[in-house]
Amino acid sequence: MAFKIYFNKKTRHPSISLSGKDKEKWENLEMTHNPSGDNKYIDIVCITPKGPSKSYVRKYVRKDRHRVKGKLHKNTKLDYNSESKVKNYLKEHNKKR
Fold first, then answer.
1. What is the number of other CB atoms lying within 10 angstroms of the CB of residue 44?
2. With contact defined as beta carbons under 8 Å apart, do 24 and 67 qualify?
3. What is the pLDDT of residues 66-85, one digit of tens each?
4. What's the whole-model pTM score?
5. Contact predicate 35/82, CB 8 Å
């Protein structure tokens, strides 16, 4: 499963999309370059045309309306190890429910 990265109009940051087109709410994970707390973020590596860059994903699944979803970042992708970290977090997050 390759995650797609979209711009979130509400938070003004890129977000990793989790839900498909058929859902009422857009589920996403917020990304940032400067984390603000301890143990609330997952370290990831994004691959862009300029080269790899270190980013952070917030450990919180946002549920926004679909009109909050902005443009797709076409050339930005997650590293394979980063993708597995996000998948592991989602597995643990869904166990708690």
1. 20
2. no
3. 888 889 988 899 999 999 99
4. 0.85
5. no
